[in-house]
Amino acid sequence: MNVTLAKTAGFCFGVKRAVQMVYDEIEHGTVYTYGPIIHNEEVVRDLEERGVLVIDDLDDARLKPGVSVIVRSHGISRAEYEKLERRGVRIVDATCPFVKKIHRIVEEQGRDGRSIVIIGNDHHPEVEAIKGWCVSPVTVIESIDEADKFCDSTCENLCIVSQTTFNYNKFKDLVEIISKKGYDIRCLNTICNATEERQTEAKRIAAEADAMIVIGGRHSSNTQKLFEICKNECENTYYIQTLDDLDLAQVKSMGNVGITAGASTPNNIIEEVHKACLK
Ligand code: SF4
Predict the structure, then answer these.
(1) pTM, whole model, 2 decimals?
(2) Among residues 78, 126, 140, 252, which is most buried (max CB within 10 A)?
């Protein structure tokens, strides 16, 4: 059996940085993360065991002045940031710099008189946070249907940005539809390179594989997209969280097996799956 492990599998720069910031902060006292630091149950559990607690509500009574609150890599809205400041907590901002850049873009472009279009999933925390930095009308578009129906009668000038983990080809298709509507458009492809590279490599490996394994948390949007891309190339694509979810006997009956993993999948889990397939 031939096993190919994607070079781009696992933690991206932003997630590695955010997780490290939490571990570094443990030494400073009580630490809370606003939402799970990443979409990976294993990592969140390990942090819990070290006393790091997750809060989902900024009105949480446990947020006493001086405790540390980690803002995760997805970022938060301006209103949430200001609320944390008012509560007097120590804010440790682990927002990925690539996401921060989008916050700045939408704010600046809005002040420049452009309505904002975010290509992405309206309910994803990253998109919710980006919306929270917009100072002009904002629309989120995820599907062809939404792009077809899009109409902003209040403004002729648009700025289009993307959720960092959005599929590049789908982004291009949606932008093309909006471009035909006669607006003056400033389009900024804010898809993160890490995502693009991971998707391209996964597609290439899956196209040659008899079985493809995609490792990542159930709620991780970038892992779900990786799965979608691989499944299109390779019918036998398996979405697993850990080695326990994998039917090894089935995988081992295949000639060529590919492995990739989402941006929030820890290295030890990838290694475990890789080794088990090689055995
Ligand atoms: S995928 Fe890119 S934008 Fe998102 S956290 Fe990772 S490095 Fe940052």
Answers:
(1) 0.81
(2) 126
